Amino acid sequence: MTKTAPPGEIEIPGAGSFALNVLPDVFDERDLSYRPSLAPLEPVVDTRAGRYVMKQEGESCTGHALAALINNLLRDTGAPVSPYMLYDLARRYDEFEGTADIGSSLRGALKGWYHHGVLPEEDWRFPDPDPLPDLSDPKIRAECLRRPMGAYYRVDLARFDDLQSAIREIGSVCVSAVLHDGWIRPERERHDGETMHVIRRPPRPTALGGHAFVLVGYNAVGFLVQNSWGRRWGRGGYATLPYDELDLLDAWVARLGVPGTPSAGSIGRVADGPRIRAVSAPDPVELREYVVNIGNDGKLSREGPLDSSPAQIDGIFTRMRAAHETWARDGGDGARHVVLYAHGGLTGVSDGLRIAQANLQWWRNNRVYPVFFSWQTGPWDTLIDQVIDLLRTRVPVGAGLGFFEGVDRLAEALARTRLAWAWKQMKDNADLASAPVTREVDWRSTAAEGPGATLTALRLRRYVTENPGVKVHLVSHSAGAIFLAGLLERLAALRVPVETLTFTAPAIRVDAFLKRVLPHLGNGQVRSFATFALSDRLELDDVCGVGPLALYHKSILYLVSRGFEGPSNGEEVPLLGMEKFFDRPDGDGGTLRKKIAGVGGTAIFSHSFAQPLGRCDATSHSDFDSNALTMTSIVARVLGLREPGAGNGYRPYAPRQR
Asked: Which SUPFAM superfamilies did the record assign (predicted)?
């Protein structure tokens, strides 16, 4: 049985050549398994009548296979759907890095349909249309949601009965397989008085590559295949795949949802004091006005539910102007506050959007227009899981404090030897987001290209030039300080001044801070600087782990300092977010604390209650971006208040006021 094959091509007489590059789905324990009913199965099921047979262009068979399934579900009620949109979504949502057109997985296509719905074929007729339809546009999104997914399930490949039951219940099953050269020209055979075109394996078969298609029936010989190579292949685009020839990689079944229904992920829950209230999960339609999606190498990205492009960034500033003008008419002081926010390092695309959704209305209620960078920080979930798995195999349950210190040193060694490369990649992505742009920007372009932070800075410079009273603020959490260091340098080069710069639990190295950030403080480029962090006692009391299991008994910054930054064994790399390095003498007779104070900056360590603009009671590294005292102090600094008022208090998922 052929398990996989390199990408290839198949030449079909009279139809042309087609790419074979489907990738098998990566195992995911969250997949739901199809469970058939106990209803008896007919000996023959054939759903070919009236089906729409497509002919693919390019490498889009996953999109065509899923489109064939959807078209069957819509057969009596709607026009055919766009396979090229589904393939585009498959590339965006599959489990494989990069955006090059090298194929996709079926799960990626299904996830794309789940998140977006699908357009009719007439609205997306070709691969990579220019411009690409903006899937966060309200009108386009509404059209897509006329054909939503209801549910999808993985089908057990070892049980032909499950595949047959799914076909009987739904009419189609999406599958992928590695093809052999017997697929080129199915053989004409007679079975039970009927002529069939049967896919037979040659005596010495050649594996050609992965392909996706749909099973649309079954009989005593095998499964009926609907392909996407036009009507010249097989019998009008169909053939029979014998049971003993079945060589599948993956199989999925899905059904339609109720038109207009948002996906289940669109509603969340959050604690609000003693109550639990429903809140909006990340909404791409709303977030397109506030989020810049940045992928690998710091470039604009289309991965996940939000597209970013020069046109989308331009739209952010168009809507920003409208908000500022509305606030000015409603009695504002004329200041146009803009905050650029960079989240921390162990954050995926969905988490970055969740942070934006949780905070955007609170910023707006304070008459500050937020722009969030959802930036690529690497495969941290997977890598941290690997370290945790290694620790689990070596660490017994229950031990003294000395033992836990030994466990921490083991975790640091694993981070140093196995994760340092990923930490460096994350820092490179942060820096590349602010790389220079060497040609004029076309702000009408919908292409996801160019360094995301630099493009935002360029559009911000134009906004500052065209509008009086703009005040720019930079805020970050954890590794977001590394991201903002590059952005600050880019803004300085563009001569865009920064009113306030605020780091929370910054994971930036002290030497990088002194070289890249400190020179811009106190010279007019940055008017006010503050950094919030845990006291060293709280850093040592913090823990990292999974659920209730603590596998590193200090804050993540200790793990960065001793592990991710790759120091020699037993050494520590000084980080700005660690209090222990603030009073260590440096080579020129000063200290970090004195240097920050010397340029008018402020360092605040939790717990702190004395300063009206420096209140903080965070107790762990992950607290800062949701800590009420910290966030309230930050917005008061942004607004230039002497102390925050009752209306400035931080509230995640705040209701709209302004």
From this structure: Cysteine proteinases (SSF54001)
Asked if 176 and 249 touch (Cβ cutoff 8 Å), the reply is yes
Q: Return the structure tokens found at 50.
A: 């009236």
Could you tell me what percent of the chain has a pLDDT over 90? 59
Burial 242-265 (b: 16+ CB within 10 A, else e): eeebbbbbbbbbbebbeeeebbee
Return the pLDDT at 92.
82
pLDDT confidence of residue 635? 97
Instruction: Please state whether 575 falls in left (phi above 0), alpha (psi between -120 and 50) or beta.
Output: beta
Q: How far is CA 52 from its chain centroid? A: 34
Cα separation of 82 and 112, whole Å?
13
Confidence bin at 262 (pLDDT 50/70/90): low
> With contact defined as beta carbons under 8 Å apart, do 378 and 426 qualify?
yes
Asked if 53 and 236 count as a contact pair (C-beta separation under 8 A), the reply is: yes
Largest CA distance in the chain: 97
The reported pLDDT for the residue numbered 569 is 65
Beta carbons within 10 angstroms of residue 345's beta carbon? 25
Q: What is the tens place of the pLDDT at every residue in 370-386? A: 999 999 776 555 555 66
d(Cα 122, Cα 136) in Å, to the nearest integer?
Answer: 19
CA-to-CA distance for 631 and 429, rounded, in angstroms? 26
Q: Which residue has the tokens 């107790």?
A: 619
The residues that bridge with 375 in the sheet, in sequence order, are: 294
Element (H, E) at 114: helix 106-116
What b/e sequence results for 179-205 when a residue is b if at least 16 CB atoms lie within 10 Å of its CB, and e otherwise? bbebbeebeeeeeeeeebbbbbeeeeb
Tokens of 76: 């009596």
Q: How many CA atoms lie within 13 A of 167 on its CB side?
A: 28
Handedness of CA 17, 195, 179, 75 (dihedral sign): positive
Sheet strands (E) in 519-592: 526-534, 544-546, 549-552
Residue spans of beta strands (DSSP E) within 385-492: 470-477
The answer to whether 72 and 176 are in contact (CB under 8 A) is no
CA dist 489 and 370 (Å) reads 20
Q: How far apart are CA 546 and CA 551, in angstroms?
A: 8
> Shortest CA distance to 437 belongs to which of 342, 320, 300?
300
| Helix, coil or strand: residue 595 | helix
- Report the chain's terminal Cα–Cα distance, integer Å: 63
Q: Six-digit token pair at 648?
A: 């400035």
To 10 degrees, what angle do helices 61-73 and 83-93 make? Answer: 120
- How would residue 397 be classed by pLDDT, with cut points 50, 70 and 90? very low
Q: Where are the domains of the chain?
A: 11-24+48-256, 280-648
Q: What angle do CA 160, 166, 167 make, to 5 degrees?
A: 90
Instruction: Provide the pLDDT confidence category of residue 400 given band limits of 50, 70 and 90.
Output: very low
Q: Tell me the CATH number for domain 11-24+48-256.
A: 3.90.70.10
Residue 399 sits at φ, ψ, to 5 deg, of -170, 170
Specify whether the CB–CB gap between 473 and 340 falls below 8 A: yes
Flag whether pLDDT at 532 surpasses 50.
yes
The residue among 212, 280, 216, 219 whose CA lies nearest residue 249 is 212
Total residue count of the chain as it appears in this document: 658
